[in-house]
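User: Run a structure prediction on this.
Assistant: Running it now.
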Amino acid sequence: MSLREYLDLTDSEFRQLFKNSPIKRIKRRGFLRNVCVALGNAGDVSDLPALERAEADPEPLIAEHAGWAIEQITARHVSNPSDQRTSSTKQVAIS
């Protein structure tokens, strides 16, 4: 499972997937916050659609970190205009 795929986990799917794992202790919100941070640090524009969905999560911790990750990826894309990949939903304006 890729990092971005974790962002689509519901609470019940998270509990089932990690039922015998210490990850379950940090709960879905903590785990997905960490996924957002990892994507913000190492992800690329192909991760933006999943992060944009996560930005609409009702859990503020997830939504805020997804927004941060989007900003990080967008900033890297703007600073590297030779990267031809683009998000399907957010367009990056390059001056």
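The longest helix spans residues 60-79.
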